[in-house]
Design goal:
By secondary structure, the protein is mainly α. The protein has one domain. It is 86% helix and 0% strand. The longest helix has 40 residues. The two termini are 37 Å apart.
Amino acid sequence: MNTFFASLGEFFNFSAQVLRRMFSRRYSFRSLTSEMHRIGVESLTVVNLCSFFIGLVMVIQMQSMLKRYGAESQVGKVLTASFVLEIGPVFAAIMFTGRIGTGIAAELGSMVVTEQIDAYRVFGADPISRLAVPKVLATTLMLPALTVIANVVGIFSGFLLVVFQQGEPGRLYVADSLEILSQLDVICCIVKGIVFGLVVGLVATHSGFKTARATSAVGVSTTRTMVQGVLGILMADLVLTKIFLILKGV
């Protein structure tokens, strides 16, 4: 138990250092844009493909379930609400952790093992400002964008299946999808993306910097990033969902 609280305190201390340097602008704008391209643009394909097929599977499942209650026409509303409020943000964040978070941890862990981090300190450069801050800021900025795109792709895949397989008018599907959403729902989706991106970035960089000086430790850091990142996302999701339900008066 003492080890757990010590690790938790170490993580929050590291997070505070990253956030302090982030707001003090101790990082290169060029490194930030490079990280945003690598983290965001290069993740589009895998996130969009997975969202597309998840949308198809959800429509098939929901149609069979709603058919029992004679509510097949509500598929568009249910799919849109499910994607925007929960599936899109959480799924995109978990995919993001698996592809980007583990990659960041492995990159920083390798730099620790090969003593490149020590070299930064020897030459008077702050490794947190140079390495951690651009990555954390890039994950925080790019995951909301990926979440919105994943939502659009997932809902569009459901649109294709409903319109071309079931013959439902496309305008009706779009109208139902827009009707079910409120402005607060969209804000909730974007805020979740921002918070999840921050969580993934902090967990990944912390795990990378805390890698032991052994080649096998890099694998341990990537595994730890995946486990802790997913747990952090789910806990943050629980808190944010409760907050937004209170704001909606539910």
